[in-house]
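Notebook entry, structure prediction.
Reason for the run: the old model in the group folder had no record of what sequence produced it. Starting over properly, with the input documented here first.
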Amino acid sequence: MAGKKPGFVHLHVHSQYSLLDGAASIDQLVKAAVANGQPALALTDHGAMYGILKFYQAAKAAGIKPILGCEVYVARRTRHDRTPKIDESPYHLVLLAENEEGYKNLLKLSSISHVEGFYYRPRVDREVLAAYSKGLIALSACMSGEVPGHLLAENPEAAQEAAGWYR
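New structure, fully documented this time:
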């Protein structure tokens, strides 16, 4: 790519499949990425992967690289804990599939979050993240992420511990 400037790529994008959070359709997102000269685009809907197949097909058809992901909810304790006012607000974590193994692990994590971890939202925990981390890239997410949350609470030691764990 000598002499060619790499394009900007959105790595944290919600679609209409992020219930009560995303408004753009898959087709609108892909069309906008192409119009803005983006070589790739990630789809990271909240707690679900319902739009992944349609996104993959639309991105491929438009000639851009689809990056498959999900913004998972991470239980503050474990995915099995369900104590009101303690376990109802999990952290956010963006996961991107680096390869086919990562995609399969995303599917496993999504299923586990709904079947074993659901409490207000589909949740995973550090135990299942460690078990299914191969082929995944973790991003700190939004201000509701664990690392940003600790920084906002002025607890840099906890933020550093969390960042180190996800490394």
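Summary: The chain has six helices and five strands.
The old model has been moved to the deprecated folder.
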